[in-house]
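Hi V.,

You were right to ask for the full record rather than a summary. Here it is.
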Amino acid sequence: TAMMIGAFADGYRALGDRRYLEAAIHAADFAMSRLWDGRRLHRSYKDSVARFNAYLEDYALLAGAMVDCYEATLEARYLDHARTLAAVILERFLDRERGGFYFTSDDHETLIVRAKPSFDGSTPSGNSAAAMALLRLHAYTGEERYLTEAARVIRLFAEGIGKQPFAFAHLLEAVDLYQRGAVEVVLVKGDAAAAELAEWIARIGQLYLPNRAIFVAVAGADSFLPEAARGRPAVDGKLTGYVCRERSCSAPVTTLAALEAELRG
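Predicted structure:
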């Protein structure tokens, strides 16, 4: 379900078909209203009853899907959902001594071995998905613990990655994000009409832009922004874009063509 949510959210961003967005948010809202009980996530739902404790991959993939929904809607509640799920991952799945995350939570039924899934197959492993979700959340929130624990996952499996990289395809994506950092696209609204902002957001969605983080700010507002982008103004009251990489931001741009040129640069 989580991977489906992410696929529909990305499909909407790329193609603009609202059916995809509606499918994504309907499933995301269902997961957080029916499968999440306020303390734990369940992985099965039948006859109006949610059953069975969720595993690491369920939490991690759903957290990533919630970030996808945020990027498709720019509604903060989806980042809040992602942070709620990440908090459980850090509280109940973390190996505090060696780093990385266990397959089961500390309140799950007792198993013979409490494994740490690491190999990426047809679906990402729980540790790969957790590292990626935490890194993406760090880009949006600045919370250092997300970065710290994602880095511990990468270090824990670094030797295995070196020996057999094809078995860690998704974790290598997390390595890339960790090393390069996010491409931070900051849009300062100024006096822009909603239609103009929507046009810019739609165009960003059509570009191939891995490791992205998208921020929409009101000039002078105190909402979280990347450090390099804080205090950046809306030029002459116009919708203004900044593209930030490695703690350095571009000059302000006030046209969609100029923003696209910066993103392609």
